[in-house]
Structures are given as structure tokens and as C-alpha cells.
């Protein structure tokens, strides 16, 4: 009985990068300022200021996604249901677009970007919860 020859396995590569079109892409978390976030060439290599700007950008985007999760009370403002639904849909679309950009940023596998996103979500969640609790406290104080 003849057996089929087994295909050769690719050579073992101990590196955590993959080369695509001459650009090295990290395939595991790494720490460093030489990273590509969202757009080719941004923040670039060897530019600490642009890396810090990228960290600040993803931080603000994460805070913004959490703040956009707050649903405004459109019923109390006398807005028609159709207009209210359109406003909610538009806010939701913006929130989802930003959330996907954040996800793509984290897929750079840069630890600094990951930490900035997590801290941004935490700060945004704190702001949202703080605003909700102060609104409840004001309502309770108003009724007393």
C-alpha cells in the first residue's frame, strides 16, 4: 500500500512579526514607539511626539465611545418619535464607527495603544456613571 508523501512544513520562525509588502507587522504584543496605527505611516518611526499624539487620539476616542453610550432623553424635550429615532441611529452609527477604529488601533498589537484604549474606556465609563449618579441624586434631592 502506497502512502501519500506528507507536505513539508514551513520552517520554524521564532519571530513575532510577519512581512507583508516589505512592511513588518507584529503578530504579538510589543512595546515601542515604532508602530502603524490606523493609517500607513502614522505615527511613523522614530517620532516620539507623533506616537504620543497617537496614544492621546485613541484615548480620546475610547472616552468618546463611552460618553456616546449615554442616551439623551429625547422624550422630555418634545421631539417626535421619528426624529428621535433618527438622532439615536446617527449617534449609534458614529459610536460604532469610532469603536471599530479603536478595535483596529488595538490590532496594531502595541502595548501603549492597548493601555491607552483601556484607560480611555475606564475614564469614559467613570464619567458616564458619575453623570448618571449625580442626575439621580439631584432628582432625589428635588423630590425631598
UniProtKB/TrEMBL annotation:
Major subcellular location class: membrane
Keyword Endoplasmic reticulum recorded: no
Example GO molecular function: copper ion transmembrane transporter activity
Range of residues in the leader sequence: none
Regions crossing the membrane: 48-70, 82-103, 109-128
UniProt-annotated location(s): Membrane
UniProt keyword terms in alphabetical order: Copper, Copper transport, Ion transport, Membrane, Transmembrane, Transmembrane helix, Transport
GO cellular component: plasma membrane
Entry membrane topology: Multi-pass membrane protein
InterPro entries: Cop_transporter
Keyword DNA damage carried by entry: no
Entry's family note: Belongs to the copper transporter (Ctr) (TC 1.A.56) family. SLC31A subfamily.
The protein's name in its UniProt record: Copper transport protein
Organism: Sesamum alatum
